Amino acid sequence: MLDNLPRGTIVIEDLEVGMMRYLQKVVTDEDIEMFAKVSTDRNPVHLDETYAQETIFEGRIAHGMLTAGLISAVIGEQLPGHGTVYLGQTLKFMAPVRPGDMVRAEVTVEAIDHAKRRVTLATRCLVGDTVVLKGEAVVLAPSRKFD
């Protein structure tokens, strides 16, 4: 995994609109197989190349939620980081992720509600210049005052 360390926590008092963090990861066959096992989603479009060749994707693709999980990793490890609680996430899947693709998951602070400790984050994943997933997350950010 390639990312812009450090990991840890950025408390709400230190967040600013426009802050961005990311990670990059190559999605492997093993990742897809492990996600299928953990999630119990064994759809053959993810696991069976022969089957997947006959679909609109013309080959195997990663689970969309595996890709979305990379956003969760950025939120939980980097921005805001440890102690963050997910309140909601919208997702729009724009293009498939295939085994061997390098995915870049990006999270950017869009709005901060200090009174409620809520932070709105723009979220997206890219393969090269192609946006494969986009959405918005709302999280409860850790605070120096309460945590």
Outline the structure in words.
The structure is a single chain. The protein has 147 residues and is of the alpha+beta class. Helix content is 23%, strand content 35%. The protein has 4 helices and 6 strands; from the N terminus they run ββααααββββ. The chain starts with a strand and ends in a 7-residue tail after the last strand. The model has no long low-confidence stretch (mean pLDDT 94).
Globular, elongated, flat, extended or rod-shaped: what is the shape?
elongated
Which structural category do the helix and sheet elements fall into? alpha+beta
With strands numbered from the N-terminus, the spatial order across the biggest sheet is 1-2-4-5-6-3
Order of helices and strands: EEHHHHEEEE
The amount of helix comes to: 10-25%
- Please report the distance between the alpha carbons of the first and last residues: 29 Å
List unreliable stretches of 5+ residues.
none
Number of strands: 6
Mean pLDDT: 94
Report the sheet with the most strands, covering strand number, pairing sense and barrel closure: 6 strands, antiparallel
CA-atom Rg in angstroms:
16 Å
Strand content: 25-35%
Jot down its keywords.
elongated, alpha+beta, 23% helix, single chain, 6-stranded antiparallel beta sheet, 147 residues
Concise summary:
This protein has helices spanning about 30-40, 45, 50-55, 65-75, and strands at about 1-5, 20-25, 85-95, 100-115, 120-125, 130-140. It is of the alpha+beta class. Strands 1-2-4-5-6-3 form a 6-stranded antiparallel β-sheet, covered by helices on one side.
